[in-house]
């Protein structure tokens, strides 16, 4: 049983009541944390493309409705209260919630080969991961679904202890927020997953916030050539401010393919290619842009239309490798504090990803900015 001294909290949250419809800021009720859970006061959150994907998701008539639900998963906050059996956390701790957990006791968390906890595994939900129930209710007492067991578009949320990372309170809230998903994913893909080597060549397909974080990770690892690939000409200047050394715009290559151009620039292909868009044809081009014998392609983008990745077998016979990336291969509780320290000593400059800031009442503006391509990361302050 949970601690009966803890009470439900009334607060504001941005509620998504139907697929693709504007969010409504409403008063809701957030339950106390149950066993192994932490209730967090969210200080700030930000909008990620995954939020947009799940905001737009089409309902399956054969399954229970996902809506209404509270989106959001990239955030920074302070512990308000803890449930029974929670160790190592107390009220007032600075924390970030993460969609991926780390228990440090299962064989997966104890290993070096995966960051996917098997004790309390990732589920797309809705529902908390240990009991499948919600902690959110609207003002009429009707249940509200969560999103990947985080739901940070609320002034208070409840998250499993496996999904909460303590951070140094000296880390600026905006910076800590970015590390809980997009920044951690991009840097981690270069640093932890691909293990980019000093002096190597890298190509990053898509210079959105995750792609630019990959650029920062590759620069941190000592890559000597970092090629940014994007259809938006404005991304050339942006990319170079993050560490891009060369820029390729696929619309300006005439009859040549991107892979032909990258192969010519890198003496046979880049050693590491990162696909950060989520388009099958771009994934294919990324593989073709890697060096035979040692090239790695890391897929960070979720294919937008569900199309398969199709490649001739000879691409692999020549020693190329394709890797999938979940949260950039980082272990949240182990690696986020390390990345925070690297940001504080300026090895990483992820704060440049923040292009806009709004308050909770303006959350739909954050969606508009991202959909119009005007924003990298928009910070949403919960109680400005």
From TrEMBL:
Superkingdom per UniProt: Eukaryota
GO BP: formaldehyde catabolic process
Location in the cell: Cytoplasm
Domain (Alcohol dehydrogenase-like N-terminal): residue spans on this chain: 35-168
Keyword Transmembrane: no
One Gene Ontology molecular-function label: zinc ion binding
Location (main, coarse): cytoplasm
Cofactor: Zn(2+)
PANTHER family, alphabetized: ALCOHOL DEHYDROGENASE (PTHR43880), OS03G0189600 PROTEIN (PTHR43880:SF44)
Protein name per the record: Cinnamyl-alcohol dehydrogenase
């Amino acid at each position: 049983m949970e601690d009966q001294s803890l009470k439900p909290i009334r607060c504001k949250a941005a509620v998504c009541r139907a697929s693709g419809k504007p969010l409504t800021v409403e008063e809701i009720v957030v339950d106390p944390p149950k066993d192994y859970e932490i209730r967090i006061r969210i200080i700030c959150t930000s909008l990620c493309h995954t939020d947009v994907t799940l905001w737009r998701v089409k309902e399956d008539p054969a399954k229970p409705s996902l809506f209404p639900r509270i989106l959001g998963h990239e955030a920074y906050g302070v512990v308000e209260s803890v449930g029974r059996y929670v160790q190592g956390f107390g009220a007032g701790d600075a924390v970030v919630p993460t969609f991926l957990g780390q228990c440090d006791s299962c064989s997966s968390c104890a290993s070096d080969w995966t960051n996917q906890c098997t004790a309390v595994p990732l589920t797309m939900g809705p529902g908390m991961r240990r009991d499948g129930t919600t902690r959110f209710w609207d003002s009429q007492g009707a249940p509200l679904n969560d999103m990947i067991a985080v739901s940070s578009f609320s002034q208070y949320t409840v998250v499993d202890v496996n999904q909460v990372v303590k951070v140094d309170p000296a880390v600026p809230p905006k910076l800590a927020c970015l590390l809980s998903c997009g920044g951690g994913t991009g840097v981690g893909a270069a640093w932890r997953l691909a293990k980019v080597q000093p002096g190597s060549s890298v190509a990053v397909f898509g210079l959105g916030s995750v792609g630019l974080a990959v650029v920062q990770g590759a620069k941190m690892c000592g890559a000597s050539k970092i090629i940014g690939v994007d259809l938006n000409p404005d991304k050339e200047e942006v990319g170079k401010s993050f560490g891009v050394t060369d820029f390729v715009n696929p619309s300006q290559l005439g009859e040549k393919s991107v892979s032909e151009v990258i192969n010519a620039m890198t003496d046979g292909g880049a050693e590491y290619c990162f696909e950060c868009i989520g388009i099958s044809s771009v994934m294919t081009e990324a593989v073709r842009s890697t060096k035979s014998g040692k090239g790695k392609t890391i897929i960070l983008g979720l294919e937008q239309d569900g199309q398969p990745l199709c490649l001739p077998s000879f691409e692999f016979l020549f020693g190329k490798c394709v890797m999938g990336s979940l949260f950039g291969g980082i272990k949240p509780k182990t690696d986020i504090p390390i990345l925070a320290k690297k940001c504080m000593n300026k090895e990483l400059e992820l704060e440049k990803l923040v292009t806009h800031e709004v308050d909770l009442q303006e959350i739909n503006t954050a969606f508009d900015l991202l959909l119009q391509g005007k924003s990298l990361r928009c910070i949403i302050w919960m109680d400005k």
